[in-house]
Amino acid sequence: MNLPNKLTIIRMIMIVPFILLLLGGHAGWFGGFAYTDWIALVIFIVASLTDLIDGKIARKYNLVTNFGKFMDPLADKLLVCAAMIALIELNRIPSWVVIIIISREFIISGFRLIASDNGVVIAASYWGKFKTTFQMIMICLMIANISALQILTVLSMWVALILTVISLLDYILKNKSVMKETK
User: Fold this and answer.
1) Structural domain that includes position 161
2) 82 or 121, which is more confident?
């Protein structure tokens, strides 16, 4: 269990207090404590940064493992999906946007699984990285819920959504040979 893998596990564990604070603060679980959104935001940012850090450490020190290859992207998807689903509950993001974003994740995961069965590794693309960055920005803005930044929040949602679709098309078009049956 190396450091990058520990960071991945920590990121997954951080989802629980993040969601409890984000949703529990609005449900009155904390007796009217007013700063639960801000604490949840800090947890989300720290969890997001562990994704950046664990990958850099793994590559720099040759600590890439099968566990990390599988769990790191899963931890990212769990964090982002949990955040967006909670934001639906708080009426800060339309459910149809989340459905499109989560659908893209399932499609790409399935695509990678088929590729893996054929001995092909599909690396993350720049479009996918841009998509993830804008999703994280969008989620942070939606958690903060600052009325003066409402236009920026909505704009970030549209950019994240457009990048989600572009990255999906990019993966499929660049790797369409994976879907061809071979005998």
Assistant:
1) 92-183
2) 82
